[in-house]
Amino acid sequence: MKKIIALVALIVGLFANDEIILFSTTKKVTPVQIEETFAKAGYSIQQNRDMNGPYLKQFKQSDFEVYNLLTLYEPKIAMALVKKNADAGVFAPFSIVIYKKKGDKKLYAGVLSAKAKAKILGFEFDEKLLNELEAKNVATLKKALIDPKREKLSYKPQPVKEKLLTKFSYEVEDDEALEVKDEVEMMIEDGLKPIGFVMANFNDFNYDMKEAGIKDFIFYDAYSLCKLKVIYTVSKIRPEAGVFAPCTMAIYHKKGTNRTNIVFPNIFNWIATLGLKDKKALAELHKAQKDMIEVIKNALP
User: Fold this and answer.
1) Mean pLDDT to the nearest integer, 8-16
2) How many helices (H) and strands (E) does the chain have?
3) FRET pair for 186, CA 20 to 30 Å: which of 18, 109, 139, 212?
4) What is the pLDDT of residue 187?
5) CATH code of the domain containing 43
6) pLDDT at 267 over 60
7) Sheet containing 247-254: order of strands
8) Looking at residue 125, what is its pLDDT?
């Protein structure tokens, strides 16, 4: 037992930031090849977005040869998670960041750990489904990167006092929920563009549930949202920040509750997990959070 405890302590010491799992490879691997490996493993691919084009177009500069945000989810595990905790749809999809800095021979790929996702959702770290998802994520990443090396991040996560999910809800009769939802989502969508947000993807999670025979929800929608200035600014300091982008906002209504919920992981995840102290990055994150809350509040019936 003492040897096992010592081994665990050693692993924790090696990877002091155990909320991000980051690998590197010197092999010739492309984001498309990584996407294909995950698709073959049974993941639902939402998007593989090349961020360099938008970086160069808007900011006339990029620190990267490659910077991709691969959004995806594992359908069976995602549905099981949502049945256990409805807020878990904020990880359907989740992101894998893929990047290569200019002049660097290494390609990096990273994903949030089970521990990080558990912290966000309020689950215990030994939550079986999250560990199962992490194991599959890691195994698939290793296969995609051919001969990867686990990278040690140079910083530790910061303590966090704030709630890591921002959540709104409104009362609506079950038989009126769909009609009201359409109005709310339209107002949210209309409010996003003027404040610099892009709807990177829309996931109609209802389809997966119907296929699996899950009838707990009247509807379950998931928006993948990204504010380019935020990820551009933060990625210059912490390239692995792409594990948080795009952010998934879930909108759902469980049968028999007469209540619709809107929930998304907030900026305090970025600040804590990435150990952010840079004033410019923090200012961009706080502005994005404030603007997003205002859009949702204005859309509520």
Assistant:
1) 50
2) 11, 11
3) 212
4) 96
5) 3.30.310.70
6) yes
7) 165-171, 259-265, 247-254, 217-227, 197-204
8) 60
Token pair in block for residue 173? 């009769």
Helices (H), 88-246: 114-121, 128-145, 177-192, 205-212, 228-237
Contact partners, residue 134, CB within 8 Å, separation at least 6: 21, 113, 114
- Structure pTM? 0.92
DSSP three-state, residue 75: helix
Tell me the three-class secondary structure of 160-200, residue by residue.
CCCCCEEEEEEECCHHHHHHHHHHHHHHHHHHHHHHCEEEE
Which single residue is written with the structure tokens 């490659």? Answer: 66
- Sequential DSSP letters for 278-293: -HHHHHHHHHHHHHHH
Statement: residue 4 has pLDDT above 60:
no
Torsion-angle region of 190 (φ positive above 0: left; ψ -120 to 50: alpha; else: beta): alpha
Whether the CB-CB separation of 248 and 223 falls below 8 Å is answered with yes
> Domain range for residue 141?
2-299
| Cβ-contact 174, 258 below 8 angstroms | yes
> How many angstroms separate the CA atoms of 110 and 100, rounded?
12
Q: How many residues does the chain have?
A: 301
Nearest 5 degrees, angle CA 142-CA 147-CA 151?
A: 70
Q: How many domains does the chain have?
A: 1
